[in-house]
Amino acid sequence: MKRSTAVSLSILSAILLLTATVTLLLRPRPVVLAAVPLMGAGAEVCTGTNLLTNPSFEGEYPVYVMPAPGHPDCQTWYQDQPNQYCERVKLADDWHPYWLDTPRTENWMNIQPEYVPSLPHEQPPRVLSSEKSQHYFSFWSTHEGGLMQQVSAVENGRYCFSSWGQAWSARDTLAGWLSDPNDHGDLYQRVGIDPTGGTDWQSPNVIWGEMRMQYDEFGLFSVEAVAQANTITVFVWSKANIPVKHNDVYWDDARLTLLQAADVTPGELASMVDVAVPTAVTHTIGISLTGNLTWTASLDPAGTLPANLSQTSGTTSSDLALTFDTTGLLTGTYTTTVTVAVTPTVPGAPFDIPVTLYVVPDLHQAFLPLVERP
Predict the structure, then answer these.
(1) With respect to CATH, is domain 27-259 assigned 3.40.50.410?
(2) If you classify domain 266-373 with CATH, what class do you get?
(3) DSSP code, position 124
(4) pLDDT by residue (tens digit) across 306-362?
(5) Cα separation of 216 and 297, whole Å?
(6) Which residues contact 165 (CB under 8 A, 6 or more apart)?
(7) In this structure, are residues 164 and 253 in contact, taking their beta carbons and an 8 Å threshold?
């Protein structure tokens, strides 16, 4: 009986030891409970049509395939596609990862984050809306990185980018899977825009918004920038400075909107008429506005071309008619300039449109084409 009891105790001790070992090795995951996602303080600042693809970070989260030439942190599955399959990177559709990979003088420094989806039933709530949020983390290590997306843009347009973010950072696993206010990873978040459309998140071209710690509750991060090309790139970013056990980041409900933009076309006007054939000429000038803007149009008072505008101001996109009559004009060249100003001012404004009229003695022997420079 004593021998049987001793054997039973030995087996029980072995089971307990194995359980303890597995517990230490496995990374704790948030408890699964029914819950409604919470929204932190703040209100959306980027108003208008959302230009992002998959802004709520949904999708199947497949293994990410890094474009050639790949990345040393990723795996080689096929000889013709080296370092391209990132097994630890599972991303929302239409988003792309980036991370700092140097220096790594210590084994905990600048480790590639692991990217996974977060689900709405996790506690505390890590999903703001819909079914998923983008979650990535480093475990007993530091990281710097995030996600990016390129978007077509209107050059000189003012854009607003925002995303809701939060983090879980603690040296140990606390009750409720919450951050430790006294012992955390000094984990910061922010968002940025590259107005030139580049994909280098370390470029000086990137305009970054406020950087702050945002633990266990969603807060809004935002930034504005003026597009300098027909493509811009948006970034969500985080940096964990201390290698604690949990350095986890969550992003949801991103928005990119065009706040203000103005465009005037064409950039130049020219016409030619026969001096013997009086002609009424009409040119159309297109004024395109986005946002709460007012435009005003005027003619150069020193111009030699007697012209008229169909209207001189407006608050919406308009087709402005420029008209003039060549009756009584002698052979020669006549010029004026149409100036379109915008209030509040936007990049590119005011717009100056040179206008030229050629009055010739015999139109059939003149071959100067009509010029309308875009």
Answers:
(1) no
(2) mainly beta
(3) S
(4) 999 999 999 999 999 999 999 999 999 999 999 999 999 898 899 999 999 999 998
(5) 52
(6) 189, 191, 214, 218, 219, 221, 236, 238, 249, 250, 251, 252
(7) yes
